[in-house]
Amino acid sequence: MEMAPQFFRHGPSLQARLFFFVLLSLTLMAADTHFRYLAGIRQVFAIALYPLQKLANVPMTLSDTMGAVFVTNHLADENAYLKQQYLADKGQLLQLQALRAENDQLRKLLEAAQRVESKAVIAEILRVPSDPFNRKIMLDKGSQSGIQTGQVVVDDVGVVGQVTRNYPWVSEVTLITDKDHSVPIQVVRNGLRSVVSGTGKDGLLELRYVAVNTDIRSGDVLVTSGIDGVYPPGLPVASVSKIERSPAFVFARITCTPTAGVGHHRQLLILSLMNPPAETPADAFEIKPETRKREKVGIR
Amino acid sequence: MHSKSSLRQGSEKKLAFADHPKQEILLPVKGSFIVLSLVAALLLNLLPLSPGALAARPDFVALVLLYWCINQPQRIGMSIAFFLGLLMDISNASTLGENALAYSIMAFSALLFHRRLLFFSPLAQAPQIGLILLLGQCARLLAGLLGGSHFPGWGFFLATITGIILWPLLFSLLRMPQKPGRSTSDTL
């Protein structure tokens, strides 16, 4: 083993370098969590990483296409099933159209605000990161496809999450199970409004600060209430799975299971933004969607 | 006469010791190979997998980084570790600096012990590498807990164990282009 002579070494010592880098990462972490200054750095790195990410997805896309070649015998069955489903859905859609017309008329009669129809963009899940500390996924549509932060992401059964960062070709979605994410909800059975929060664990949501004597039962379906102006009203979010009422505590412990899941599908829908919310009650009477800035939309 | 032969025997023994496989003279590493191996590791880390496999996947970038920190400490150091950590942070959508912190600390430990580690065979290195990986995982855990997360469960350390298992294989794989005794044209 040869020893490096002292006069050949240049630069600061190992310990000094460690100190510098630890300090730098701690500063970055603090800056990233408390102030959102680092969007630019993220943008640059994300663009640099994009080709690699695409390349890493190649095996999966390949296996998909190979699978498509080999499972042609399922196609007839699937086609028949889809046709049947289409007919059934079409019947319901006709009913829905009639109901919507009726609803519009009733709302007009009541002079209530019209509900906005939301458009949707289909995006594919690009990556589910393995970070255990946050629940986020990457979708393969970004600001180039007109995706904005704050847009709501759903699958065919319910709410999945919300776009929290967007890059040119990729967008980052915070799932409703993320520890920092909350969704305003309404209980379908009795119209009770509350906020459901993520716990950071997969498939587990929590209704916090609900009084012990509140009328809520296990199996209750929770849908978005829409009062936040971010989530369109009426989207299924979760169902109540367990309620613990202990007289020792003021609040009941209510755990819920999200309706939607990332594990089910590769494709998700990104809904368009709703009208931005009013900041004060007085503003609510004079909302002008075009003039208002859209920066208050995120509810992280 | 007798003493002379024993002397010769002794010198032969010494020669045998010098010829020990760990002491063999390796070919220099090409910079392109280092870059290639790191990019390949990054790709393996980005590979989409099922949730179960995701938890057990070793941190390939950390392993390759440790290999180069031990074998090429003049070239690969903490700044590259920090940069790779940032890349992992962005691709994992985690707090910026979380992986950077873990990688810097791991690179530091590897640089500190690189002379000592090279005394051992890859198999004997594995548990020591495991300690370094554990240190990095602990740094990551601490950063996550400071960020307000819950403890993610003991499955979090599964990646460390798979990393230990993978180390001897990875070591011999990355060592391959440096092995002497074959024509340099077929090496990378």
Task: Tag the structure with descriptive keywords.
heterodimer; A: 300 residues; Thrombin, subunit H; six-stranded antiparallel beta barrel; B: 188 residues; mainly alpha; disordered N terminus; disordered C terminus
Order of helices and strands of chain B: HHHHHHHHH
How many strands appear in the DSSP assignment of chain B?
Answer: 0
How many helices of chain A? Answer: 3
Beta content of chain A: 15-25%
* CA distance, first residue to last residue of chain B: 51 Å
Using only C-alpha atoms, the radius of gyration of chain A works out to 24 Å
Based on Cα principal axes, name the global outline of chain A: globular
Strand content of chain B is under 5%
CATH superfamily of the largest domain in chain A: Rod shape-determining protein MreC, domain 1
Using the coordinates above, name the CATH class of the largest domain in chain A. Mainly Beta
* Class inferred from helices and paired strands of chain B: mainly alpha
The chain-level mean pLDDT of chain A equals 81
Mean pLDDT across the residues of chain B is: 83
How many strand elements of chain A? Answer: 12
How does this model look, in words?
- The complex is a heterodimer of chains A (300) and B (188).
- In chain A, a hairpin with an 8-residue loop joins strand 1 (120-127) and strand 2.
- With 300 residues, chain A is α+β, with helices and mostly antiparallel strands.
- In chain A, strands 1-2-5-4-3-12 form a six-stranded antiparallel beta barrel. A six-stranded antiparallel barrel of chain A has the order 6-7-8-11-10-9.
- Chain A has two domains: 16-68, no CATH class; 119-277, Thrombin, subunit H (Beta Barrel), CATH 2.40.10.340.
- Chain A starts with 13 loop residues before the first helix and ends in a 29-residue tail after the last strand.
- Chain A has helices at residues 14-34, 39-70, 72-110; strands at residues 120-127, 136-139, 152-154, 159-166, 171-175, 182-187, 193-198, 205-211, 221-224, 236-244, 251-258, 267-271.
- Chain B is 68% helix and 0% strand.
- Mean pLDDT of chain B is 83; it is low at 1-8, 10-19 and 183-188.
- Chain B contains nine helices and no strands.
- Chain B has 188 residues and is mostly helical.
- Chain B has helices at 2-18, 31-46, 51-56, 60-71, 78-92, 98-112, 114-117, 122-146, 158-175.
- The longest helix of chain B has 25 residues, at 122-146.
- Chain B is globular and about 55 Å long.
- Chain B starts with a helix and ends in a 13-residue tail after the last helix.
- Chain B has a domain at 60-176.
- In chain B, helix 6 (98-112) runs antiparallel to helix 8 (122-146).
- The interface between A and B is large, with 48 and 46 residues.
